[in-house]
Amino acid sequence: MIVSLFSLPFVAWLLFVACDGSDPKGPAATPTPAGATATATPDATATPAGGTPAPIPGVSLEKVVGGLSRPTFVTHAGDGSGRLFVLEKQGRIRIIEDGRVLPDPFLDITNVVKSSGNEQGLLGLAFHPEYEHTGRFFVYYTAQDNDNTVAEYAVTSDASRADLRSGKELLAVADKYSNHNGGMLAFGPDGYLYIAMGDGGSSGDPDDNGQNLLTFLGKIHRLDVDAGDPYGIPESNPFIVRSSARGEIWAWGLRNPWRFSFDRETGDLWIADVGQNKYEEVNFQPAGSKGGENYGWAVMEARHCFRPASGCDTTGMTPPIFEYSHGEGCSITGGYVYRGGEFPALDGVYLFTDYCSGNLWATRQVGAGAFETERIGTLPGSISSFGEDEDGELYAVQDDEGAVYRVVAR
Q1: Phi and psi dihedrals of 179, rounded to 5?
Q2: How confident is the model at residue 51 (pLDDT cuts 50, 70, 90)?
Q3: How far apart are CA 223 and CA 89, in angstroms?
Q4: Quick check: bond before 12 cis, omega within 30?
């Protein structure tokens, strides 16, 4: 039995994924003082035998800062500054420098961001691979008219302040509902910008967006932001020559890919897709894929038929590498493959958690197409996102407490 070291005295509304169109509830954690350590309670791990990987170590969360307002993501700019950039749901980007949050936001677009819905707000941030020279970065947010919006901005001569006047809209995708917005942005090893959009919301994908190649919703897209106006479509995208599909699409059949990440060493793509009523899932796309994978939603929920409830045709669909039932949580928070230098025992391990239960899992690849996943402990609830710093060390943001934590192997 796993027992969290955190006291859970009350219930917080779940951010970011209503499984059945309503907001499920998840546990909220007791605030931890800055500098303190929140320990993931470890499960038993198998004793290594000859040729098997060493056990995965326990993981703790070491508090970096608090006092933020519903943080949704943390990342770095790749500019050698060592700073962290944290998104606040209402529409601000805050900078953590030398262990403190700077008083003035890096960017404040609260006037254009709609954050009234529990899954709406400022959701994604990606800095251009050449940010140190170009000053360009990209954000994903819910606009006041409900559109899922991707926009580009630039930094000013002050490295701590973005230029509001530089804003340029790349995408504005109409969305009838407030939930399942996706929101992840990341540049791949190929230099292209990848964008995750949810199926548009409500419950059960009523418009069948996941399986419709003519809509942006329920997909991961791949754009060339260094060509075209406002962007170009890479010629190697899988559907670029198909008249019955959008050329921007890279992968499809997704419900709410709230967080995905690239392994900075191998280039593999890991996608955590939030489930409907029964299952959460982790999908995997190996480096070198030509794209076009169909991950099954809403024909499938994880490895199980959803529509129809039985006898579904899964021809050509790519099943997840791991799933867990709603007996173990209700909203997956995808993470990263650890490639930092401080904790060698975590190298190559993909960490992810559940927003509601706090269960923490670790997956590693043990062969071509073969993976091992084990539950390694329990984190505080309401971890809304993970992130990396420039050196590959991992961080987590906690929604209800408004805190940023550093992931530490014990």
Answers
A1: -105, 175
A2: low
A3: 25
A4: no
pLDDT, tens only, 177-192: 999 999 999 999 999 9
Q: Is the pLDDT of residue 18 over 90?
A: no
Residue 303, SS3 per DSSP: coil
d(CA 340, CA 402): 25
* Secondary structure element (H or E) that encloses residue 133, with its range: helix 131-134
The terminus-to-terminus CA distance of the chain in angstroms comes to 20
| Residues 6+ away with beta carbon under 8 Å from 81 | 97, 159
For the CA atoms of 220, 186, 113, 72, the dihedral, rounded to the nearest 10 degrees, stands at 110
pLDDT tens for residues 117-162? 989 999 999 999 999 999 999 999 999 999 999 999 999 999 999 9
277, amino acid identity:
N
15 and 23 Cβ atoms separated by less than 8 Å = no
| Contact by Cβ (8 Å): 194, 222 | yes
| Amino acid at the residue 185 | L
At residue 274, what are phi and psi to the nearest 5 degrees? -75, 135
Tally helices (H) and strands (E) across the chain.
Answer: 1, 30
Is the whole-model pTM more than 0.85?
yes
Both tokens of residue 29?
Answer: 């954690």
Collapse the DSSP code of 134 into the 3-class scheme (helix H, G, I; strand E, B; otherwise coil) and give the result: helix
User: Which tokens belong to 306?
Assistant: 């959803």
DSSP per residue, 20-57: TSS--EEE-PPP--TT-EEEPPPPP-PPP-TTSPPPPP
Cα–Cα dist 218/247, whole Å: 14
Domains of the chain as residue ranges with CATH: 61-323+384-409 (2.120.10.30)
Whether 356 contacts 14, CB under 8 Å? yes
Q: How far apart are CA 66 and CA 308, in angstroms?
A: 46
CA distance 122 to 105: 13
Provide the pLDDT for residue 52: 67
The radius of gyration computed from the CA coordinates of the chain, to the nearest angstrom, equals 20
